[in-house]
Amino acid sequence: MTAPGPDDEQTPTTAPAPRSRNKLRRRINAMTSLTLALLVVGALYMAFAPQPQSASGQPDDAAMTAQGQQLYTNTCITCHGSNLQGVTDRGPSLIGVGDAAVYFQVGTGRMPMAAQTAQAPRKPPLPQFDPNTPEGQSNLAALGAYVQANGGGPRTPAGPDTSLRGDDPARGGQLFRLNCASCHNFTGVGGALSSGKYAPPLNQASNREIYTALLSGPQNMPRFSEQQLTPAEKKDIIAYIESVADGDNNPGGSRLGGIGPTSEGIVAFVVGMAALIGFAMWLGAKS
User: Fold this and answer.
1) Is 122 a known ligand-binding residue?
2) If you read the UniProt record, what top EC class would you report for this enzyme, in one word (predicted)?
3) Structural domain count of the chain
4) Burial letters for 186-218: b for 16+ Cβ neighbours within 10 Å, e otherwise?
């Protein structure tokens, strides 16, 4: 055997340098292309995406909230405080009451109150908040937007007033008797409560006013969430109230003043007692 010569020695093998550089270059190019593609997609989305809207379907306009703050400062700040926190012996906090409470209280003239009484009565609203005028509708929406921006709360439903009337007044009558008749009477004529408060008659209220009252719970009235009364059930109650106010539905039979079965019971009692007394007198005379 012969010893290996210099030419027979094996040299260590290494990966070709050009191949490694090409692989690194391809990775850098792929990352650069992906980054540019993401930037282009983001720019296109920002250019063509629709503007965000609020829950009420109107653009979330900071100018409307600012207008509402100015209206609040002019008409509400004395009783409800500079930060809606309320003022002792003047007015409660408005944080979290929502836009629905603003529509009901201000749109019906209950606020601002003329005097500190047990209950705020319905009266003509301030001209700038009259819901029957375009200016009043705009100002009510602005004031509601400002209150809504400070704590959230129930919102006034969108759409025309007629869209808040349900299709089943019979079911609405059942729900009304279960949830409302104890205060508002069977036909919505209202009634007295304790401590100088009262349940007002409902024949003067619009569909939107009734709906926002159900949402916000003014005075002694409780709030009815969607778990207690669904939107469809609230609308059916409004359909029942509207039918009674129009005279289309007399749940107590003859109206007799429009206060439901109570009046019929009184008539039956008086007539029955008179008949019994007359019969007793006839028996006495005969004996």
Assistant:
1) no
2) translocase
3) 2
4) bbbbbeeeeeeebbbbbeebbbbbbbbbbbbbb
